[in-house]
Specification:
By secondary structure, the chain is of the alpha+beta class. It has one domain: Jelly Rolls (Sandwich). It contains four helices and eight strands; from the N terminus they run ααββββββββαα. A four-stranded antiparallel beta sheet has the order 1-8-3-6. Strands 2-7-4-5 form a four-stranded antiparallel beta sheet. α3 crosses α4. It holds the Pfam family cNMP_binding. InterPro entries: cNMP-bd_dom, cNMP-bd_dom_sf, RmlC-like_jellyroll. This is Cyclic nucleotide-binding domain-containing protein.
């Protein structure tokens, strides 16, 4: 479930969206493709154009738990923005996916050059992190708590 404030169009004024999109590269992934693995280096991120990406969490001795499904307009990956730039989750294309891909080093440099742009990126990523943390908590309660999430909001 995506919050309207976490999509790129809602998060940025037009000039910041345009600036970010100037460094975007169109990519596509077949269903079943792993975009990244938990614990590996986070050097890029994506905004989904079409398709669905599942975020998952490694659970020792069990299959990875799907935490959230992302779709059109959603940011895939936030670990690129915060040191040590290591993925906190894994991600897999659940259907054919078309996305815009961004080089993390380039975007971080853009943030350093323009503090207003950098603040907008930081607020966007922060909102996404908060939303993903909430989704992870609810999903893990559903999977492992005796009474599930108990209808948490």
């Amino acid at each position: 479930m995506t919050s309207a404030t976490t999509t790129m169009n809602a998060a940025f004024p037009a000039e910041h969206r345009e600036r970010l999109m100037r460094v975007a590269r169109e990519v596509s992934f077949e269903a079943g493709t792993r975009l990244f693995e938990e614990g590996r280096r986070a050097d890029r991120f994506w905004i989904v154009r079409t398709g669905t990406v599942a975020l998952d969490l490694h659970v020792p001795g069990r299959r990875s738990a799907v935490i959230e499904s992302l779709g059109q307009g959603d940011l895939v990956g936030w670990s690129w923005h915060l040191p040590p730039y290591i993925w906190h989750l894994g991600a897999e294309a659940m259907s054919p996916v078309r996305a815009w891909e961004f080089d993390a080093v380039m975007v971080r440099a853009m943030c350093a050059e323009d503090s207003e742009f950098g603040r907008a990126i930081a607020v966007w990523v922060g909102r996404v992190v908060a939303q993903r943390l909430h989704a992870s908590r609810i999903r893990l309660l559903d999977l492992y708590a005796p009474y599930g999430s108990g209808g948490l909001p």
